[in-house]
Amino acid sequence: MFWFFGNIFIFVDLSGERRMRGIDVNMPAAEVEEELGASSPNSTVSSLSGKRSENEVERDRDSSYEDEDGGDAAARKKLRLSKEQAAMLEETFKEHNTLNPKQKLALAKELNLRPRQVEVWFQNRRARTKLKQTEVDCEYLKRCCENLTDENKRLQKEVSELRALKLSPQFYMNMNPPTTLTMCPQCERVSSSSSTTSASVSSALYPKTGMVNERNPNNPVGPPQPHRPVPINPSWAKIFSQNQLEGHRPS
DNA sequence: GTAGAGGTGGTAGTTACTTCA
DNA sequence: GTTGAAGTAACTACCACCTCT
């Protein structure tokens, strides 16, 4: 049997896969018209707030559970959409991932499907999209976690090395004094622009600082927001540095 | 203005069926 | 031919929002 709708010519093998027990996926346009005609404002079979009216349940039974012979089929029907139908639905989904009632009816008519089928397809498609996105996000966070773990290890090692170096008298003899010392007024953290290791030490001492970017929660592993540095008395520097290396945490 | 009922459309979770290795 | 996994159409339950009374 051939049906023609839109630019799509479909061959339906009545004894084959296209036609399953019960509702035909590619039911003739006349039947669709009927279906559309029956689509009063109450016709949405889905989404019934858990309180499905008797009419709706009845209609549901009529449209979904009636087999070819008109009897009730115990099992629900599951019908494969044709490639053309799926392609068209995909195309529409790309444009907008939800449909208003008019669009739903029009699309159903065009595809020779029941509006309910179009509705279900869009529901499932949104669910798949969300699942995919979740997987992508999960993968991204996993990579971030790995990177941070590596960075943490590296910094821990650096701290150990610095601690060892600190114990050696040569450390003080070869150490260049910091040229500019600054302190953040919020956290009282000290940093030095001339020290090559200060940044590393800082991040090693405060490994969690950059873990959550409060100003941009979407970038949970982004760099910490810059503190506003203010110059401090150089004579404090040694004390602060000492305290930081001893593990002192500003409150 | 507001509370309650009913309709509608969304999501989450599940089931049942198809397809394929 | 059988079987298990994956994909997906269709379902239920619930929620939020809107409209009407």
List the helices and strands and how they pair.
Layout: E1 2-5, E2 8-11, H1 29-37, H2 54-64, H3 83-95, H4 101-111, H5 115-167, H6 169-174, E3 181-183, E4 190-192, H7 198-205, E5 230-231, H8 234-245
Antiparallel strand pairs: 1-2, 3-4, 3-5
Helix pairs in contact: 4-5, 5-7
The protein binds a DNA duplex (21 and 21 nucleotides) through helix 5.
Describe the overall structure:
Pfam families: HALZ, HD-ZIP_N, Homeodomain. Residues 220-232 have a biased composition (Pro residues). This is Homeobox domain-containing protein. It is found in: Nucleus. Residues 138-165 form a coiled coil. The protein has two domains: 2-40 and 54-126, Homeodomain-like (Arc Repressor Mutant, subunit A, Orthogonal Bundle); 133-245, no CATH class. The termini are far apart. A three-stranded antiparallel beta sheet has the order 4-3-5. Strands 1-2 form a two-stranded antiparallel ribbon. The chain has eight helices and five strands. Helix 4 packs across helix 5. Strand 1 and strand 2 form a beta hairpin. The longest helix has 53 residues, at 115-167. It has 251 residues and is mostly helical. The protein is 49% helix and 6% strand. It has helices at residues 29-37, 54-64, 83-95, 101-111, 115-167, 169-174, 198-205, 234-245, and strands spanning 2-5, 8-11, 181-183, 190-192, 230-231. The chain is rod-shaped and about 85 Å long. It binds a DNA duplex (21 and 21 nucleotides) through helix 5.
Unreliable stretches = 1-75, 193-251
Per DSSP, the total helix count is 8
How far is it from the N-terminal to the C-terminal residue, by CA? 80 Å
Strand content: 5-15%
Strand order of the largest sheet: 4-3-5
Q: Which geometry do the CA atoms define?
A: rod-shaped
Number of strands: 5
**Major sheet details:** 3 strands, antiparallel
**Count of distinct structural domains:** 2
Percent helix: 40-55%
Helix/strand/pairing category: mainly alpha
The succession of helices and strands, N to C, reads EEHHHHHHEEHEH
What Rg, in angstroms, do the CA atoms define? 34 Å
GO molecular function: DNA-binding transcription factor activity, RNA polymerase II-specific; sequence-specific DNA binding
InterPro entries: HD, HD-ZIP_Homeobox_LZ_Class_II, HD-ZIP_N, Homeobox_CS, Homeodomain-like_sf, Leu_zip_homeo
Organism: Daucus carota subsp. sativus
GO cellular component, one term: nucleus
